[in-house]
Write a structure and sequence with these properties.
The structure holds 3 protein chains of 3 kinds. By secondary structure, chain B is α+β, with helices and mostly antiparallel strands. Helices cover about 30% and strands about 40% of the residues of chain B. In chain C, helix 3 links the parallel strand 1 and strand 2.
């Protein structure tokens, strides 16, 4: 008998073991009356416009500096709602677990999900568990979907206006860099931790301060470059960015030097970009700076009528270039 | 070609490796390609996991001083 | 006392770059001649494009991007070698990340990996030792690429494999040399290059001495230059100053890391394991005599190119007809003159290797390229 408890195929079999897993691990962490009613579908009470989003999470390694796949799965979906100015309310959660996965790790991950949920007040109201034979999954995959009530309408990638300010909430590239650091193959060490975090509390404060933003997006995969390029195309405007004003921490710079990456291309999991009228940008920054992780929030650029569909990076050296979408898999390069 | 980055030696190991720091990112790299021993605080160039050489920091300092002089001289010129 | 940040900030200082640009313009105004500088090395191409240095230079200074990207100069048949080796049973192909996306005639290594081949991109060649030790029943083949800069690292790996008797580790050597490539560019009667920025990390290993023959033979200035934007601007200033004075000399801007003799320990290591090949076919440049390395006979037992000679394709495969990589690598065309640039050929779907590597001229132009005038 193995001394460490692991997930068996029977945990996904719909029988006694599965029932025990659901009660001992999931219900214990996510406890709320809608979930524990155990109906075929959760009954929700909602009115008005609803935002609805889904995301699947696969990350290697599952635990990294600043978070784990569970924290990521909650923050990711909650943030997608928050970026639409929607108050995150109800989440679903599906686990695909590889046979032999340590029960203790699963419990840690589930508890970290519960901790993250408390930051926004959202609740997991339905879920599913599947166990697949060893080798058919890489440890653990999580899917979360979420709904939330839209508090202010019209926030959209198509809504950027010429002369809007572009704000980034904090230093960029941390999550992508932290994940690379955590990979065995590169044998790196640093004090760097992921930015992984729930953004709803800040968004709630911005909305309470009556900040009328035109667009918000969390700069996840594809990083800052992807968000800005998507916006420029969707709104058919140009976006002018001052390279020198983009906050980047030393460790992210160091990693980029070593492996030839661009910080603009690295993923974030708790960093967002916002477009809003220039005359209220400073007020927004003041609200944001009250939050520790947004103390470096900065205006990094402006929406322009020139170069529609393109992002122009003004370098500190007096030249400028297009900031393009990141391409292909991120591989360390020698040249 | 040949992406190589300045880094600082922060730890010496007895298996012909040193730990270097590149702006807060630490990595153990090989010293197989250099004959002179390294000391903590040395600046080195790193290429694909190897120390390529020791950077002459006096020489680097001289270059930076020269650039500073250029900047100062040209600022004076433009003020006149 | 210097800090590490001085190396980064000091050699990227916007004010210094601006003032060097002014000095370059002042010097360049003293001559009517067109100065065509070839930056041989893709690392310099990257710096020039990323920092937008072309926008800061007067019109009589032009850059011609040279063949110094180790991935871009690999002909398709060599990529096919890698793919063929990776397709063998119980084989792990290990190579540096840059190789993974380069298209061969049968596809890229990334495509072969998705079909189930065990292909592992690594950052540090010595990691190959661990892979070989962890997989004693498999053949591990290190597909070695790079110029003089990276050859010593392959030699160090081979030395370790020999010392530790790791017998399941083989090598496929594609190390190429800079000076013969410069000769190939200059021997073309259409060559317009009249000055060189010398690849400095090559010279960290091989010394600045390797460019003396270029200076003597073609009467062109060669300035060995660092890779930071201030380094490149200072090197341009030194070239223009030589041009104005009618000089053609070997100069070393990167003296903080480059000596005339180079890293002798590394050179000895390379000498011990490698010898110069009679000829090597370069993409775009064709066969160049004595332009690449191969394993010495004592190490033929590790030479995958020999051991698998019967199954490795030998036919030379040229680029897609529309692809101008050849002319671009020779410095005869600018990426934007290529009809498929940005249309049929992009970093996602490259026709030629200059579009694949971030050091390739086409990739640099695509990524940073449509440089916009600051005004």
């Amino acid at each position: 008998m193995p001394t460490k408890k692991t997930i068996q195929l029977s945990h996904g079999g719909g029988g006694k073991e599965m029932d025990q897993l659901i009660h001992d691990v999931f219900f214990k962490a996510f406890d709320n009356p809608i979930l524990t009613a155990q109906e075929d579908a959760a009954k929700l009470n909602m009115c008005g416009h609803i935002a609805f989003t889904t995301d699947s999470f696969t990350v290697s390694p599952l635990f990294f500096a600043g978070g784990d796949i569970g924290k990521l799965a909650i923050a990711g979906t909650v943030n997608d709602l928050a970026m639409m100015a929607a108050q995150p309310e109800y989440l679903s959660c599906s686990f695909i677990i590889e046979e032999g996965f340590p029960l203790a790790d699963l419990t840690t991950i589930v508890n970290s999900m519960a901790t993250e949920l408390r930051k926004s007040g959202a609740r997991i109201v339905c879920g599913d568990t599947k166990v697949v034979p060893k080798g058919c999954a890489d440890g653990l995959f999580i899917n979360t979907s979420g709904v939330g009530r839209i508090l202010i309408p019209d926030i959209s990638a198509r809504n950027l206006q010429v002369s809007d300010a572009i704000i980034v909430s904090r230093d960029i590239g941390r999550h992508g860099a932290a994940i690379l650091m955590a990979r065995d193959g590169l044998s790196l060490e640093s004090e760097l931790y992921s930015d992984c975090d729930t953004l709803w509390p800040i968004i709630e404060q911005l909305l309470a301060a009556n900040i009328k933003m035109h667009a918000m997006r969390d700069a996840t995969r594809g990083g800052l470059s992807a968000v800005l390029n998507e916006w420029a195309k969707a709104s058919q405007v140009g976006i002018n960015v001052e390279e020198a004003s983009i906050p980047i921490c030393d460790e992210v710079k160091g990693l980029c030097e070593l492996f030839g990456f661009e910080p603009f291309d690295l993923a974030n999991e708790g960093t967002f970009v916002m477009a809003l009228p220039m005359d209220i940008a400073q007020a927004a920054i003041e609200v944001m700076q009250r939050y520790g992780h947004c103390e470096h929030a900065a205006i990094i650029g402006q929406v322009t009528a020139s170069h529609p569909g393109k992002v122009v990076l003004q370098t500190p050296w007096g030249s400028s270039r297009y900031l393009d979408l990141p391409q292909g898999e991120l591989l360390p390069r020698i040249c | 070609m040949c992406l190589s980055v300045p880094s600082k030696v922060v730890e010496i190991h007895d298996d012909a490796t040193v730990t270097v720091d590149t702006l807060g990112v630490k990595r153990r790299v090989s010293c197989h390609l250099i004959s002179d021993p390294l000391a903590i605080g040395d600046f080195v160039l790193i290429h694909i996991g190897f120390v390529m050489n020791k950077i002459d920091h006096n020489d680097a300092q001289e270059s930076l001083d020269l650039y500073r002089q250029i900047v100062t001289a040209m600022q004076l010129e433009s003020e006149q | 006392m210097m800090t590490l940040n001085d190396f980064y900030q000091g050699f990227r200082d916007p004010q210094t770059i601006g003032h060097l640009a002014t000095l370059i313009a002042q010097q360049a105004a003293k001559t009517n001649q067109q100065i065509n500088i070839m930056e041989v090395c893709g690392g310099h191409t990257h710096t020039i494009m990323k920092y937008g240095l072309l926008q800061l230079l007067p019109t009589n200074i032009r850059f011609i991007h040279g063949p110094g990207c180790p991935v871009c100069v690999m002909p398709k048949e060599r990529i096919d070698h890698a793919a063929t080796l990776a397709s063998q049973a119980d084989t792990i192909l290990v190579t540096l990340g840059d190789m993974i996306r380069v298209p061969g005639s049968m596809g890229s290594l990334a495509q072969f990996r998705s079909r189930g081949c065990d292909i592992r991109p690594i950052y540090d060649p010595l990691d190959t030792l661990v892979i070989a030790q962890d997989n004693p029943h498999k053949t591990v083949i290190f597909f070695a690429i790079g110029f003089e800069t990276s050859a010593p690292m392959t030699a160090a790996l081979l030395a370790q494999a020999e010392a530790l008797h790791i017998d399941n580790l083989l090598f496929h050597i594609n190390h190429v040399l800079v000076p013969p490539a410069i000769d190939a560019v200059m021997s073309d009667s259409r060559a317009q290059v009249n000055a060189f920025i010398g690849p400095a990390h090559v010279s960290v290993i091989s010394g600045s001495k390797i460019y003396q023959s270029t200076v003597d033979k073609y009467q062109t200035p060669v300035v060995v230059s660092g890779f930071e934007p201030v380094d490149v601007m200072e090197s341009i200033l030194r070239i223009v100053t030589q041009k104005v004075a009618g000089k053609a000399e070997l100069d070393n801007q990167y003296s903080r890391s480059v000596s005339y003799e180079g890293n002798l320990a590394a050179q000895q290591l390379v000498d011990k394991y490698f010898m110069v090949r009679d000829s090597f076919r370069w993409r775009g440049l064709g066969p160049i005599a004595k332009s690449a390395l191969t394993l010495r006979p004592e190490y033929h037992h590790r030479d995958a190119e020999r051991i698998y000679a019967k199954i490795l394709p030998t036919a030379e495969i040229d680029d897609h007809k529309a692809c101008m990589c050849g002319d671009i690598l020779r410095g005869l065309a600018n990426p934007k003159e290529c009809k498929v640039f940005g249309r049929g050929c992009s970093p996602q779907t490259p026709l030629g290797s200059c579009m694949v590597s971030s050091e390739g001229a086409c990739n640099a132009y695509y990524r940073y390229g449509e440089v916009i005038n600051a005004n």
